[in-house]
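Tip: read the tokens left to right.
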């Protein structure tokens, strides 16, 4: 699995208010979503009326597809006459990257894993904060909360 992200920094044309900014940015976001079926949002320069930063994310089974989609999104944005593309940054990660893995102690107890009914876990939730807590999958269905064990 590959995760591709694109961040584009935009300078908007003749925009004098945040309301006018929204009228320019929202159609761009909608077109990107419609054409490429990616996640996209305004992520930066929210209080500046002539600047906008958009974040785009795509998940695919191969890196080439991620790159192609992000390149197409970048070309679409750069081709808009009412804005100027100041910067574009792409990042591609795979699920093999250590930066995407959760630490072992972040695993959910077995009773809280997807597919199980919510509220089935025994004991207090969230767990008490009196000391270091670690959830360990020891086959007891997540019933035990192991303090200080490693």
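Filled-in amino acids:
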């Amino acid at each position: 699995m590959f995760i591709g992200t694109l961040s584009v920094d935009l300078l908007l044309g003749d925009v004098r208010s945040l309301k006018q900014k929204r009228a320019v940015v929202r159609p761009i976001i909608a077109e990107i979503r419609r054409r490429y079926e990616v996640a996209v949002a305004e992520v930066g320069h929210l209080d500046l009326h002539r600047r906008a930063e958009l974040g785009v994310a795509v998940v695919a089974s191969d890196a080439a597809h991620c790159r192609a989609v992000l390149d197409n999104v970048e070309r679409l944005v750069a081709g808009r006459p009412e804005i100027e593309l100041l910067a574009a940054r792409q990042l591609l990660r795979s699920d093999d990257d250590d930066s995407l893995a959760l630490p072992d102690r972040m695993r959910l107890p077995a009773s809280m894993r997807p597919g199980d009914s919510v509220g089935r876990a025994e004991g207090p939730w969230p767990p008490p904060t009196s000391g270091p807590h670690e959830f360990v999958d020891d086959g007891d269905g997540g019933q035990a909360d192991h303090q200080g064990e490693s």
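DSSP finds two helices and six strands in the chain. Confidence is low (pLDDT under 50) at residues 116-121, 130-135.
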